[in-house]
Amino acid sequence: MADITWLASYPKSGNTWLRVLLANHKRDGDAPADINALDDGPIASARVWFDEWAGVKSSALSDAVIESCRPEVYRCLARESKNPLYMKVHDAWGRTNRGDPLFPPEITAGVVYIVRNPLDLAMSCAHHWGCSPGRAVENLCDSDFALGRSLGGLSDQLRQRLGSWSDHLRSWVDLSGLPVHLVRYEDLHRDPEAVFGAIVRFCGLPDDAGRVRKAVAFSDFSELRRQEQTNGFREHSSSAPGRFFRSGRTGSWRGELPPELFRRILADHGETMRRFGYGEEEPDHGS
User: Fold this and answer.
1) Which CATH superfamily is domain 4-117+145-242 in?
2) pLDDT of 155-174, one tens digit each?
3) Rounded Cα distance, 233 and 237, in Å
4) Which of 27, 34, 128, 182 suits 224 as a labelling partner, its CA being 20 to 30 A distant?
5) Nearest Cα to 44, choosing from 13, 107, 86?
6) 192 vs 68, 176, 215, 281, CA distance in Å?
């Protein structure tokens, strides 16, 4: 039996980058890991995993029934795995309608939670979801927001209840009761070796500076973009134009985010933003 480390984040917060970093570190190879063959399989909400381990097609079940079964699916995964698992998840932490934690504590080694400035997140999510920035901001501020709802066809992912950006962050950090290592995307971008090294230590992986340095080099955004341009990226949403791996920059909201959307995000999330070090932003559009 193996424990699971949940790699949790609101969408477009650097979760995939972290998975690439971990894959390169664990493999310690002579060439960068293939972004289309990352370790530990797909996201925790992948329908294919549920169907395989639950023994019943999720298409025949309601969202509530699926959710009540998901904790046992993860227990099955942990029992059958011989090695520790590092599993991407975009769900907020929560409980099923039976009161069970969606992510069972007895099989959880810990949580690496990546948080990103919601001002940057708004534009990145709009691109990823193929919607307007206004729609993306509405989602970021919606306490009932969920992904995986099927419209005109069956989604390849199960329903994921995210809530608002603040709801999502607080659910893992304040409510889960799990050991959480919080990582700001901006810090990982600014000093990837130091920040990723701390993640490696939290996960109990070999703490070797040279290995961390090589993993960071092999996971550079230029390499990720090169691989995507050459072979595509199978996790990229078909509804979104352009590339999955764009610039990876921080502060790109300046000059992009309309003033009214800036104000809406600050109104809904200002308190949480200040708590996690995002309280100094000022609009530069004149409004």
Assistant:
1) P-loop containing nucleotide triphosphate hydrolases (3.40.50.300)
2) 788 999 999 999 999 999 99
3) 9
4) 182
5) 86
6) 38, 27, 10, 23
